[in-house]
Every structure is written in C-alpha cells, then in structure tokens.
Amino acid sequence: MMKSAKAAMLAAAMIAMGASAHAAQTPSVALGEKLFNDPKLGGAAGTKSCASCHQDGAGIEFSYKKPNLPQIINMCITRGLNGTPLPLESVEMKSLILYHQSFR
C-alpha cells in the first residue's frame, strides 16, 4: 500500500511539473498540435495520442463549432488515452482548442 501511495504521489508531481512547464507558455496552435500528437497528454502512460484516432485531424474538422469542445477533449483524454482531464483554463486546453479551430 505504501509503494502505491508513493507511486501515485510521484505521478501527480510529474503531471504537475509537465503542466507547469507549459504554464509559462502562451496558448498556440503549434503547442496544440504538439499536445495532439503527444501520447503523454494528461499524464497518460500508453502509446496512443489524439492523432492515433484522428490522423491528420480526421473527424475534428467541425469540432470548433461545439460549445462543449473542452469537455469532449477531456472525455477523449480520460477514455481514449486513460489520462487525467486538463483544467479548462489551462494553456494546454486553450492550445488544443486553437488547434481544433485551425481546421476551419
């Protein structure tokens, strides 16, 4: 039990460090594209990224019109990547939204 608690704390710290690395950045399409292709998005530990299901943005062409796009992105992160949802006001989320909007 003690090892799993330490592992969970270490994982949370690593996610926080990754988030803080982006926190100093400004949201951008380029960062959104990088995150879209990152299998570690949301602290995921697998090999899949958003691009695994949406190669070259397939299926997200009209997503920018959806008012609940942040929630959809987080659903994909949690269900598809087994990651942790992004804070809605984070640089990462804003960048992913900008990347989606770039397909207009």
From TrEMBL:
Keyword flag Transport: no
Database matches in SUPFAM superfamilies: Cytochrome c
Keywords: Signal
Top-level lineage group: Bacteria
Record carries keyword Cell membrane: no
Gene3D superfamilies named among the record's database cross-references: Cytochrome c-like domain (1.10.760.10)
Signal sequence extent: 1-23
GO MF terms, alphabetically ordered: electron transfer activity; heme binding; oxidoreductase activity
All residue ranges annotated as the Di-haem cytochrome c peroxidase domain in the record: 28-60
Pfam families listed in its UniProt record: CCP_MauG (PF03150)
UniProt-recorded name of the protein: Cytochrome C
